[in-house]
Every structure is written in structure tokens, then in C-alpha cells.
Design brief:
By secondary structure, this protein is mainly alpha-helical. It has a domain of 42 residues. The chain contains 6 helices and 2 strands; from the N terminus they run H-H-H-H-H-E-E-H. Strands 1-2 form a two-stranded antiparallel sheet. Helix 2 crosses helix 3. The protein is rod-shaped. 3% of the residues are buried.
Length: 158
């Protein structure tokens, strides 16, 4: 894509450089890594290093505008993804808490004494009388039903 973009701009650059036939030499000192990078980019765009540097300098205003837009886009995306991460972290914490509850409930349901009580009450119906005098029945089909019987039969000491 960069090569296509550069090739598209090449025609513009050649037109602009042809208008200024007389060119002057300009010296530049830079880090060796930068020179290697520029040389590779020039080669990819089928330019000499000199032509490529001239192209970059001629288009520096467009590049600066694009960098400002690019930086604001990055900032907006970072803000968005930070929000997404916070939501996901909250979801993870909620799921961990639910998982702990499930593990604890699983331990309770596998308790040997509860299973013993269930084997004794399986298929039976227990009549429960609440503190307010209301009554209802619980049919014991699963160990959870035994827990309900225990829960509603429990009377607080006053």
C-alpha cells in the first residue's frame, strides 16, 4: 500500500521537481539506523535515496497533518479500549465471584451428611410450619430440597 501511495505521489513529485530544474546540494547528518531505514523505504518505492528524501521534504506539510490526525485517532482508540478493558475486568471479577459461589454450593451438595439425609427423605413430602403460622410442603426430589426443608424448619432462638 505504501508503495502504491508513493507511486501515486511520484507523478506529482516529478512534475514539481521538473518545474525547478536548478537544484542545490544539501548536506545532512543523521543516525546510521535512520539512513538505513530511509534507504530501504526509497528502494521499496523505486527511488534513489536523494529522490526519496526530496519527496519527503516536499510533502512534509501533508505528513505533519496526517500525524496529528493519526495521534488523535490513537488517543481516541486508546480511550475506547481502556473503557472496554475496564468493563471486561468487571465481568471477569463477577464471573470469578459466581464461580466461587458455584464451587461452594457444589461442596455443600456433595456433603456426605446431606446425601445421607436425602437418601432418608427421598420421595417424601415434608410439611413446614413458619413462625407466622403459615404451612407449606416440600417434596424431596433432590438434595437441594433437603436444604430447603432445613432452611425453612430452622427457628431462631430469641
Amino acid at each position: 500500500m505504501q508503495g502504491a501511495l508513493l507511486n501515486h505521489k511520484t507523478n506529482k513529485m516529478k512534475t514539481e521537481t521538473n518545474q525547478t530544474e536548478r537544484k542545490v546540494m544539501m548536506g545532512l547528518r543523521c543516525a546510521p539506523e535512520l539512513k538505513i531505514q530511509l534507504t530501504e523505504e526509497a528502494k521499496d518505492a523505486s527511488f534513489s535515496l536523494s529522490e526519496y528524501c526530496e519527496f519527503l521534504l516536499l510533502n512534509r506539510e501533508n505528513t505533519a497533518e496526517k500525524e496529528v490526525v493519526f495521534e488523535s485517532t490513537i488517543s481516541e482508540q486508546k480511550q475506547y479500549y481502556d473503557g472496554v478493558l475496564q468493563k471486561k475486568d468487571l465481568e471477569i471479577q463477577t464471573l470469578k465471584q459466581e464461580n466461587r459461589r458455584s464451587v461452594n454450593l457444589d461442596r455443600i451438595l456433595k456433603d456426605p451428611y446431606l446425601n445421607h439425609l436425602f437418601s432418608e427423605l427421598k420421595g417424601k413430602t415434608e410439611r413446614i410450619v413458619l413462625e407466622n403460622g403459615r404451612t407449606f410442603e416440600i417434596h424431596c426430589r433432590e438434595p437441594e430440597d433437603v436444604l430447603r426443608v432445613m432452611l425453612y424448619s430452622f427457628k431462631l432462638k430469641k
